[in-house]
């Protein structure tokens, strides 16, 4: 999972405030991407142990992938060489292994369905930021994968592979992490200042526009890089959380979690654990797009044809809401992020508070989670 | 760095002893390779901070590599695609980056010397065992390498890449680590029992023969795997410690270090820190071959032509002996290995003792290190 640069935001905001104090309102900060990986390792608070929702997305996408590869992959072009797959934003597993296995099986299925199909060597590359816990990823590899394994450290908003070296690229639940929070949402002098919220809730038009502009810019960079790396006709498969047409992030499960996290942070400030200023400068670097917004961004890029953009039917949509699991999942994603921003370890207290609020909100959450939307996107590199 | 499986040896020996006790002398143990990586991280006891000798080997090999690539690489075959390099047994850096940079520069030099040479994308793969500290490797990557980076976890005695996917393979100071210690050197009933030593000192013919047989078997597996992975005409560059013609490992610096380590272990047993039995079952999984032995093993494999096998002129050969540095280097390599074998942490006491013995032996060591031999091997994949 790639989460961009919350600390960068903090620094940007800090400098912005300092610049204003010094009368230098127009000063631009250097926006070098930073990273705050989700929880590594394999313990009870790790992402590896708390990513069953994301697993569900991969399960839901399997049928789509099988169909996509059957209908859209020009496999004859691959013969007689190897088939190269990369997962962008792989995190520490085990979901990435499931996603890769699904793709390998789908390609093998298509290959075997054709006459005189040769055996294909699969080469699978796992990508995430340099700070990702690759040691854990490697130690949890399947014992006998049907592919050769490699890992690639670095931001997927940049080039990571030689030209035309990939046959298929995948990204599951990663592209909603922005490379950075848009500067103006933390700027008290901007019309897009996100005053009372700590994420893009959708309640203020200018904030949403600033977030979407950043999302579109980032997606464009991602697509530009993958367009160079994929062979002509190569497939790009994306799954990410989105919003239904006309809905606000607040109405989705993923948004609601962040809606709850904000008041917890303000309460922590009221209790004196952290400063109110620090809470005001906290903004989540996530954006949940609609199908229409995605379509607009992809068409604007021009390197890919959108073969399919649809809403997945998540297997957990109809399960009762599990507050404990949701709390652990949220913590595994936000812990490093929060520690970096507040520069003191407040996560135990914060998530005790969050757990209580989550329990109290069970009934609301259970209704709202039905509006969760996981998007499936299939793109084909223009030859 | 790949060190095979000392714990596996221990288990083999333990089971062998138990089998003998049970009257089951012919029982074979399952010889699954295990790994005991050199010290990870980047602190004062890490391999990363204590591998200046190995760095010297890479520096000494640079001139050879430039010449080898100039004369032996069929670079026109690469056009217009990418050039793929893998370093087998990369450890945690920084030496591997230097080795890769030297190769990339040499290939670029050759490419530019030819008319109408296109720009080549370099793809560099860093390989080591799954237990290697890849997180440290990634965090210490050069900031703007002239190549795309990937890592491959796994034993280089097995296949790690798709068929014909590499243009050049390198292995610096890794192939002297055996996949396992030959069983018979720990077997009291064998003529090859290595009774009073803890490494292959060369003082007993049967022990040396058993070690060489294992080295040859391992090298053969390495060459078989690389032969599949390299393109026809692809180059394989190897550097490893060896022995001069007619000399014994005891006469080399690397051998002498192990010669000193043995008595330290026996002294630790006399002091009651560890059992004598455990020391008797301790054998180093390293072998330092001669040029003649290497030549024999390579010819026996048959997949490669030996373009060059020669002794390198190490830049540190004529420096005064540095006992402190040698102690830290030895510890960074053997620490994990020793902890695994003795199952208790005795390394601080052991290396205090070792440091004293090393200081006392300075004059001998300084004479003997002149006989250190670093071998450079250039092989070409038969088309």
From TrEMBL, chains A, B:
Cofactor(s) required for function per UniProt: Mg(2+)
Keyword line: Magnesium, Metal-binding, Methyltransferase, Transferase
Magnesium listed as a keyword: yes
Region named Disordered: 1-47
Biased composition (Basic and acidic residues): 16-35
Pathway annotation from the record: Alkaloid biosynthesis
Record-linked Pfam families: Methyltransf_7
Coiled-coil segments: none
Keyword Cell membrane recorded: no
Recorded superkingdom: Eukaryota
Residues annotated as transmembrane: none
Family, similarity comment: Belongs to the methyltransferase superfamily. Type-7 methyltransferase family.
PANTHER family membership: S-ADENOSYL-L-METHIONINE:CARBOXYL METHYLTRANSFERASE FAMILY PROTEIN (PTHR31009)
Official protein name in the record: Loganic acid O-methyltransferase-like
Organism: Coffea arabica (Arabian coffee)
Lineage, top ranks: Eukaryota, Viridiplantae, Streptophyta, Embryophyta, Tracheophyta
């Amino acid at each position: 999972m790639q989460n961009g640069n919350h600390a960068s935001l903090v620094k940007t905001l800090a400098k912005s405030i300092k610049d204003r104090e010094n009368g230098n309102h127009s000063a631009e900060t250097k926006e070098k991407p930073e990273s705050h990986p989700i929880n590594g390792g394999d313990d009870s608070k790790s992402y590896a142990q708390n990513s069953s929702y994301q697993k569900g997305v991969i399960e839901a996408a399997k049928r789509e992938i099988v169909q996509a590869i059957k209908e859209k992959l020009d496999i004859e072009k691959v013969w007689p060489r190897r088939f190269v797959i990369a997962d962008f934003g792989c995190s520490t597993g085990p979901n990435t292994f499931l996603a890769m296995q699904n793709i390998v099986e789908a390609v093998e299925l298509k290959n075997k369905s054709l006459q005189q199909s040769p055996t294909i060597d699969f080469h699978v590359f796992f990508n995430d930021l340099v700070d990702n816990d690759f040691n854990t990823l490697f130690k949890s590899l399947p014992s006998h994968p049907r592919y050769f394994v490699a890992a690639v450290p670095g931001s997927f908003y940049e080039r990571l592979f030689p030209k035309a070296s990939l046959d298929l690229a995948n990204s599951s639940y990663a592209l909603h992490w922005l490379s950075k929070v848009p500067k103006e949402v933390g700027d008290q002098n901007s019309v897009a200042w996100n005053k009372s919220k700590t994420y893009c809730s959708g309640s203020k038009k200018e904030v949403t526009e600033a977030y979407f502009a950043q999302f579109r810019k980032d997606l464009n960079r991602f697509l530009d890089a993958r367009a160079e790396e994929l062979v002509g006709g190569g497939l790009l498969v994306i799954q990410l959380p989105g919003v239904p047409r006309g809905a606000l992030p607040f109405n989705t499960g993923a948004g609601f979690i962040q809606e709850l996290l904000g008041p917890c942070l303000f309460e922590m400030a009221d209790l004196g654990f952290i400063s109110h200023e620090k809470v005001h400068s906290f903004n989540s670097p996530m954006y949940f797009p609609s199908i229409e917004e995605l379509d607009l961004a992809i068409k604007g890029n021009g390197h890919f044809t959108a073969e399919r953009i649809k809403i997945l039917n998540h297997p957990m949509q109809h399960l009762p809401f599990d507050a404990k699991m949701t709390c652990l999942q949220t913590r595994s994603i936000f812990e490093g992020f929060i520690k970096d921003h507040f520069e003191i370890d407040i996560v135990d207290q914060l998530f005790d508070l969050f757990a209580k609020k989550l329990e109290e909100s069970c009934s609301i959450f259970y209704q709202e989670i039905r509006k969760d939307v996981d998007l499936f996107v299939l793109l084909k590199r223009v030859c």
